[in-house]
Amino acid sequence: MEEYEIMNKVDRWLGEYLEHQSQPETSSSRQVLRWEPPLSGNFKINVDVACLEEEGTGFGVLVRDHNSNFYCASIQCK
Length: 78
Prior knowledge:
The chain is of the alpha+beta class. It is 22% helix and 36% strand. It has one domain (1-20, 42-78).
C-alpha cells in the first residue's frame, strides 16, 4: 500500500471517529497506555485528538511497523 493510500484511509477513519464521539473525555477518566506493536508484517496507526475551546481542535496520526520503525505522520490544527 502506498503512503498516500494509508494517509487517505487515516483521514477517512479519523473523520468517522470524530463523527461518532458523543461526549469529550474528561481529564480524570484518562488512562496511561503503553504502545504495543502490531503483529509482524503489519502497521499500527496511532491517532490522538485534542479539543480546546479557545485553542481549537488538533489531531495527529503516526504510522509504525511491528519493529517500531516510523513510516509517516500527519498533524492538523483547526
